[in-house]
Amino acid sequence: MIADRQTLLRQRLASAGLAGAAKAGGIPSRADAQKARLSFAQQHSWLYQQAFPKSVSNNLGLVITFTGTVDENAIASAVDRIVERHEILRTTYHRGPEGTGFQRIRQSMTVPKSLASISSREASELAKASLRIPFDLETEAPLRLLLFRTGADEVMCALIVHHIIWDGATFGVLSKELERAYEASALPDLGVQYADIAEWQRDRQTQSLAEDMEYWTRRLAAPRPAKTLAVDPGLAAVDLESAGRVDYRLTSSLELTRLASRHKVTPFVAFLACWAAVLGQNGAKEVTIGTTVLTRDHPETENLIGNFANHIVLRLPVGAAPASAALIAVAAEEFDAGFAHRNLPYESLAEALGGHEIKAPPELFDSLVVFIPSGTEGPRLPGATTKWQRLHNEATQFPLVPLGLEIFVRGRGAETTIDIEATYAGNAFDGGTISELLSRLDNTIHDAVHEVW
Fold first, then answer.
1. Of the residues 278, 292, 330, 352, which has the fewest C-beta atoms closer than 10 A?
2. Distance CA 301, CA 56 (A)
C-alpha cells in the first residue's frame, strides 16, 4: 500500500510539474556503521526530550487486538526479526562534545517485551501505565512490546514507541513486516537504513533547501496573523504538558466528501478551508494552520521504519467572510505551494523568522491538523481478525501545540465516517470549549455544502 501511494505521489507531482521533488535512488550508505547525525525530524524529538526528560508527549501507544488462532510467542519472535533488520529499532541517542545530538547504532538490542495471561481490562491498564513511562533515549530501545493472552481466542498487543522513530506511515510499514515475519516469509531488501538517510539529509541541506527557505520566509513574512484561538487565562497554572482529549464524529462526514468532490479537491483541503472559516469567526483577516507532511520522497524510504514527518504552515485569508468556494480554492492553492516546499525543517524556518524556543508552543500556529486516510488496518495475521486503537498519553499530542486535530477517515463511499481526536493543552482550554469549536466546524461544513457562506 505504501509503495502504491508513493507511486501515486510521484505521478501527481509530475502532473503538477513537480517531478523533481520525487527522485528515484541515489542515497548512499553512510561511512560510519556505528554512528550518524540526527535527521531533522529526530533532532526536534531529541531536543524536546533533553529539555523535558520526564516528558511522555512523544510517547505513542497502540493497542492491537487479534481475535482467532494467534500465537503470541510467534509475534514476539517476529518483532525480534524486525528489530534485527531495522537499525533504528536498536539505536540510542546521545549528546556530542559540542552539544549536538547523534545516534549510535547498536549491533544488537533487546526490545522490552512482556507476556502475560490477564483480562482485557487489566491489559489496557498495563498498556496505559507503560505509555506514561518516559523513554531514556540514551540507554533503552525506543520501542516496548506488551503481549497479553486475554482469552482462548484473543491476544492483545500493546506497542509503545517514541516519536523519534515514528511517523504517520510507519504503522503501515510495521504491519506489513509483522505479517510476513509472523509467517516466516521473506522480507523486502531495505537497501539503506534510516541513519543513512539522516546523514545524506545533513550533507545536502545547504544546497537543496535555499529555495524552500526563500519561499517560506516570503510567505510567512511579518506582519503575520495573530493567534486565533482564545485561551482561558484561568487555566494558566495547569501543567505545561497536561492535555485533555475530545473524541468527535462529524455528523457532516458525507457532506465533507461531497464538498471535496464538488470542488475537485481532497477532503483534507475542504476540511482545512472549513476549519479556517471557524478560526476566522472571531474577526481575523488571516489565520495560520499547521499540518504535518511526510518527506518520504525517495523509493528507499518506502519500507523503512522512521520519522520522516515535518510541519508546514498554511496562511489563509478569512476576512470579510469569503464564500466557501473561494476559500476552498485558496486552501488548495496554499497547500499545493506549501507541499512543494515541504522539506525545509519547521525548526529551521522558525529560527529564521525570529527564533524557536523548544520549551514554548510554536510561534507560527496554534492548531495543527493531521489527516489520516483510510487504509491503515494494522497487521493481518492468518486465522485472526484485527482491530486497533490509539491510547491517550494525557500529554499534548504534538509537544506544546495548543490544539491538535487528528482526522481519521474510515470506510468508503456512503459508508464514510470521519472521526476527530482533538488533543488540547490543559493550560489553554477545557473540554467544553473544544467540543463547541468542533460543533461549529460541523455546522460550517453543512453550511458550505449548502453554499450558505
1. 352
2. 27
